[in-house]
């Protein structure tokens, strides 16, 4: 149950950051530091989500 909640929370964060990234890209260049940082943060969240999902299946 704990992992299910964690996955849902990560999923919500991913969706939020994804929307933020799309908004940033509407106004800034892809090479802008804010866009790069947001994209990197999104990558980290996705990796964390995938790792959590994989680990929850092992249990």
TrEMBL record:
<dbReference type="InterPro" id="IPR037208">
    <property type="entry name" value="Spo0E-like_sf"/>
</dbReference>
<protein>
    <submittedName>
        <fullName>Aspartyl-phosphate phosphatase Spo0E family protein</fullName>
    </submittedName>
</protein>
<dbReference type="Pfam" id="PF09388">
    <property type="entry name" value="SpoOE-like"/>
</dbReference>
<dbReference type="InterPro" id="IPR018540">
    <property type="entry name" value="Spo0E-like"/>
</dbReference>
<dbReference type="InterPro" id="IPR036638">
    <property type="entry name" value="HLH_DNA-bd_sf"/>
</dbReference>
């Amino acid at each position: 149950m704990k992992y299910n909640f964690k996955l849902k929370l990560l999923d919500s964060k991913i969706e939020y950051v994804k929307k933020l990234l799309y908004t940033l890209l509407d106004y800034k260049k892809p090479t802008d530091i804010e866009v790069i940082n947001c994209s990197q943060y999104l990558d980290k969240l996705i990796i964390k989500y995938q790792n959590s999902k994989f680990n929850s299946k092992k249990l």
